[in-house]
Design a protein that fits this description.
The chain is α/β, with parallel strands linked by helices. The chain has 2 domains: 36-70 and 83-256 and 266-270, no CATH class; 273-382, no CATH class. The protein has 12 helices and 14 strands. α9 runs parallel beside α11 (343-352). The longest helix has 21 residues, at 288-308. Residues 1-33 have low confidence and may be disordered.
Length: 382
Amino acid sequence: MLAILLFHLFALLASPVLSLPLDSSPPALESRATKYDAKAMSTALSRGQGILGSYSRCSGSMCSWMSKVADSTKVTDLSIPGTHDTASWNYTPLTQIKYLGLTKLIYPSPVYRCQKSSIFGQLASGIRAFDLRVGPSPRNSSELIFFHSEAVLDTSARFEDVMYGFYRFLDENPTESLFVSIKIENTTFGTDGFAQQSLYTTLTSSAAQSYVNPTTSISSLALSSIRGKIVLLRRFSVDQVSPQPSSGLGLNFVDGWADNSAAFSINYASNEVAYIEDLYEPDAPTGITNHVNVKLNATVTNIAAAARKTKGDGLYISFASGEKAVELIVPEILAQGLIVPGVNQGLKKWLTTGAGKGLKKKGLVFLDFATETSGLISAIIA
C-alpha cells in the first residue's frame, strides 16, 4: 500500500501542469449546421470539453487528408491511424485525485493514461479511428460517461457529447470518414442493460442517422459510400435493448475478441473476417527493450499481413498499444520509451526506412500517445 501511495505522489510531482479547467463557454455555431439542433450541439461541445477538448474549427492539411484518397478505394484497403483508449488523454494525477472518492484507491494514473491530445486535437492531427469505452456515471447512473477500466475519466462529458463532436467535425470536413469502436467498459455504477439501451438510443437517434452508417458489412464498400460518415465497430451487445433491433448496427465484434493475443480473427459478418492484433501485455524477459521488441514485432507482422493480404482479403486491425504495469512499464513508457526508443519510434522507423516502407493498405492502426511521435501518423497514412 505504501508503494502505491508513493507512486501516486511521484506521478503527481512529475506531472505537467493540468490542462483543466477548460473554457466552459459555449462555442459559436455556424448557421449551416442544419442536421442537428443547434442548441443541443452547443450544449454537447461545452459539456464535453473534458473529453473532446475545446472546440475550434479544424485547420491544416491533416483535417482533410482523406480527400486525396480515391473514391473507388475499398474500405478494407484503407490505411487509418487511430487512438487506443481515446478518451484517457486528460487522466493526470490531479484528475485521479479529483475522483478518488468515486473510485477509491486504484493504480496510479500513468497506468490508465494512453493519450495526451484531446479528441479534437487527435482529429486535427489526422486520427480517424477511435476507441471509446463507456459506463454508467457514478454521479448519475442515467448518464453514460467514459472509463478506462476502473478509472473515471470525466464525469461531465457524456457519450452523446463526443458523438456530437464527431458530427461537427464531419460537417466541416465531409471528405473524411471515422471508424469508432465502442465498448461497455465498466458497469460498477449501473447496469449493462442501461448502457446497451443508452448506446443504442444515441446511435440510432435522428441526429445520428445523418452521420452513423449502420452497415454490418464493409467488404464491398468503397470510400465514397462512407465519406462524411461514421463506421461503427460494435464491441457491445444489444441483447438487452428493448424493443429488440430489427436490423444490425455496425460491424459486430461482440464475440470472439481474444484476450492479449498477437493474432486472432473474428467473423463480424457473413463471409467477412477481421484479422486482429491486440497483444496489450507482451510477455518478454525483464526490461523495456525486450517488451518493446515483442510488442513491435506483433504489430508490424499484422500490418504487413494487411498490406499483402496474406491472411485473406478482410479488415485488418492492429493495436500498437500496451503496457506491463507489474514492471512499471506503463503505456507511455512502452509507446514513447525511456532512454531507449519505444514502440512508436520503432513503428515509424519500420514504416519509413525499414521493411514496411512503401506498404499500402495497412488497415486500422490504433496507437498509444499517437500525437507525440512526429511523423508517425503521416507514415501510417502514406
